[in-house]
Design brief:
- The complex is a heterodimer of chains A (445) and B (428).
- Chain A is an alpha/beta fold and 445 residues long.
- In chain A, 35% of the residues lie in helices and 17% in strands.
- Chain A is built from 17 helices and 16 strands.
- In chain A, the strands form 4 sheets. A 5-stranded parallel beta sheet of chain A has the order 3-2-1-4-16, with helices on one face.
- In chain A, α4 runs antiparallel to α5, α5 packs across α7 and α8 crosses α17.
- By secondary structure, chain B is an alpha/beta fold.
- Chain B folds into 2 domains: 316 residues, TIM Barrel; 95 residues, 2-Layer Sandwich (Alpha-Beta Plaits).
- In chain B, 29% of the residues lie in helices and 20% in strands.
- Chain B contains 12 helices and 18 strands.
- In chain B, strands 3-4-7-8-9-10-13-14 form an 8-stranded parallel β-barrel, surrounded by 8 helices. In chain B, strands 5-6-12-11 form a 4-stranded antiparallel beta sheet, with no helix packed on it. Chain B has a two-stranded antiparallel sheet with strand order 1-2.
- Classes of the chains: A alpha/beta (445), B alpha/beta (428).
- The structure holds flavin-adenine dinucleotide, flavin mononucleotide (FMN) and iron/sulfur cluster (SF4) (2 copies).
- Flavin mononucleotide binds next to β4, β6 and α9 of chain B.
Chain lengths: 445, 428
Amino acid sequence: MNKSASFKSMTKGFGLDQAMAEAERCLLCYDAPCSKGCPAATDPGTFIRKLRLKNITGAIRTIKENNILGGACGVLCPTSRLCEKECCASGIDRPIEIGKIQRALVEHSWARNFQVFETPELRKGKVAVVGSGPAGLSCAAELAREGCRVTILEARPEAGGVIRYGVPSYRFDLDFLARELADLKTLGVEIQCNVSIEGQGGAEKLLQSGYDAVFLATGLWDTLRLKPDSGELKGLISSIEFLASLRDQRFQQVSESLAGKSVAVVGGGSVAMDCAEAAAKLGARDVNLVYRRSFSLMPAEKEERIEVLDAGVHFHLLNQPVDFVSNAEGQIQGLKLVRTRLGEPDASGRRSPEAIPDSSWVLDADLVIEAIGNQARSESPHWYPNVQVDSLKLIQSDPSTGQTSVAGIFAGGDIVRGPALVVEAVQDGKVAARGIVEYLAGKDV
Amino acid sequence: MTRKKIDLSVDFCGVKFNNPFLLSSSPVSNSAEMVANAFEAGWSGVAFKTLNSDRVRIVHPSPRMNPYHYGSKRLVGLQNVEQISDRPLKDNLLDFLYLKKNYPDRVIISSIMGFSNEEWAYLAKASEDNGADMLELNFSCPHMTVEGSGHKVGQANHLIEKFTETVKRAVSIPVLAKMTPNITDMTEPALYAKQGGADGIAAINTVRGISQIGLDDWTARPKVAGIGAISGTSGPAVKPIGLRFIADLAKCEQLGLPLSGQGGIETWIDALEYLLLGSTTLQVTTGIIHYGYRIVEDLIEGLSDYMAERNIERVADLVGKALPTLQETDKFDLDRQGTAHYDVERCVGCGQCLVVCNDSAGQALEWDAEKRRPRLIEDKCLSCMVCSFVCPVTDLITYKEQPKNWQRQETEVMGKDLEGQLKLEVCK
Ligand SMILES: Cc1cc2nc3c(=O)[nH]c(=O)nc-3n(C[C@H](O)[C@H](O)[C@H](O)COP(=O)(O)OP(=O)(O)OC[C@H]3O[C@@H](n4cnc5c(N)ncnc54)[C@H](O)[C@@H]3O)c2cc1C
Ligand SMILES: Cc1cc2nc3c(=O)[nH]c(=O)nc-3n(C[C@H](O)[C@H](O)[C@H](O)COP(=O)(O)O)c2cc1C
Ligand code: SF4
Ligand code: SF4
């Protein structure tokens, strides 16, 4: 496989035989801790038992009926701190590889063309879902199964949200996403792409244009800036822009421009890991990851950190970027850093970095990717002026129903939680769908 | 432990074997080329693939075997419809001569099957004349395509006696009768074989069974051009049946013949169990079909170390040692009762014990949902021990005998308030 092909598709998962062998290590626990550990109640305790008893179709049904993105979660979930965390098999040797079993079962359903869902009769209410990320998709699927007519409105050219335009394709590829989305088609969900719900009150107006309820799942699509006032610099790019460019028509151009370059990535979270690994995989000469605390205090998952190190990325820990270095033409040439040491724990419980006086130095870089965090689009509150948001512009909603401060408007996913997980977005979608169904019943729609 | 060289040799019907481990008659013993490799690996002898006299042409059905898998565990059992040797008799006999010449210290048992009285004599004589040290009369193949042969003979006592007698008259080497398990009581045909002059008994041949049905074609496997058949099952799945028949034969005082045990032997532990129930030699097919001849290294080493650790000098000192305590169930002392005992320190919290105790036993467990630990209510425990079978931690749950006056709780009755509706007469 050439480089671009291996960049564009995921590595193979377990086959059914391997999944069965792994399932045989499962202790088939009473009141299974793994099932309690799944934020979206995908219920591994049950689907593994079904696999063990050769009820393979039943196992697939359990996954998919509980989690419309069961395949994506099997691939993308940080399982070691979710379902696998309390796995009783750890007491014997190591946890069951639940994510891999889950992915194998979902892929098997495609291989043998097993349809979990039938097309429901859609007669309840009309619901608009804004955003086709995991939260929106999950809510739409659940609503359709309940008999609601659902339209997803998506600003970008294709559906999927972060798992389409954020996560690099070698971790989650187009083919897999397309297969997983096929279930939504079966369920009769309509997806309208290139439709952006913006402008003053744009989202709230949907309630006046024929929709009985609205689910907001717009995610976090602004990048936090290191120096918001630094203006336009050539060679300075946000993580969102960088990752999205790898998943649209700009791929060729971006990957060619990385060759032989020195790249600096700022940040220690999962997004920074994705940016750094992708840059390294695409042939950047050096990729330097800069983080202000220590290795073990990085927010990224341990597996991710190791993988990125393995991909050849250089970690510059205990270094705080303070400025960009550029030439007269506004082209980035480096990153000015100061060394830090760890002081007292901060609000997050992690020891906070303190700058060491007179320790600044310059790290050469042709390209700097900022990946210190994603946040709500700055103008997003205008789309729904009556919906209560907090200081970070995250929507306030009732965790048990998804209901916002405006009747008929519900919300979930990252735009409510802040940066979270696919599986949590899935759960929010399910919860809001139930909230919406109840709301529609109350309105007698 | 410094390794003492253990002498595993056995005397079986007056023939010396370097160790008790033989290839049984089957594809694993089909030709001298193969058997030579087995001898190199350490097998002490072979029951060669059953000879045929060339009068009836033998064609093996195709395909001729099918696996019995359990989960992802492969070959727990094996199904086959293979016939006796399809090679010309002359080729097989030349192979005997080759083996005898090159491996003089190994034993060749010629397995034979005749389709008439004369043929039995003919095959026996030809075998003896070309180097066979012993004979094994195949009265037990359960899926011969030639009518009235194989285990049909093994189910007809007078034929067993007659053919054995014929063979004994034709040769002077020891003769084994290989029995079918597809009957209720094996001692009966074995006694007929003895009557005919047999020097020992080999058992068991394969058990009639069905390993799998195709779900798309509703046809049993192996499927031979659209047809399935009930046929011979072997391997670990049949070991309990093999052990049972060996024990029956060994306990039959009237019989008193040496035994060659087989059926599901793969490890030295399986082998030892067959010895302890009265076998002197041990034969293997499916274990070799699964793992190859190399398993003999582990059979030899495992048995040797077991004997060394217990200062057992000779294999003969193990033969039949489990027989005295093997009794009918009416000999049990029912006054002695016990319960399970939990070493909860080692528990990993899976709760499988709870599930099975609730659903198949005495509802004798309480569950601490917070700590995920079971607690045994001793006087509800039935001592069925099913919890210990599913517990993933070996020997966490063990059997504990209770004192003499210990009492078990009666099983809960749900319909106590329905006494008025009870219809029950006193049993006269
Ligand atoms: C780079 C990266 C890697 C990640 N890796 C993982 C991982 O491995 N595992 C994991 O569990 N989580 C991961 N996450 C987090 C996870 O992807 C998110 O928690 C999840 O996607 C949130 O789903 P969502 O539906 O709330 O929002 P999103 O996925 O962000 O989807 C929002 C959608 O709404 C659309 N939209 C926005 N505004 C409008 C508008 N005005 N009108 C119409 N449409 C609009 C957007 O185009 C987008 O398609 C990662 C996140 C990032 C950024
Ligand atoms: C494919 C196959 C062919 C066999 N052919 C013969 C045979 O020709 N003669 C015979 O006496 N037993 C034959 N057997 C039976 C074996 O010798 C042996 O008695 C039986 O398989 C049980 O032992 P095991 O569990 O070790 O395989 C055959 C078994 C198999 C699996
Ligand atoms: S916790 Fe682990 S061992 Fe128990 S049921 Fe779940 S996967 Fe199996
Ligand atoms: S089966 Fe064994 S490990 Fe599992 S809960 Fe019971 S005692 Fe503990």
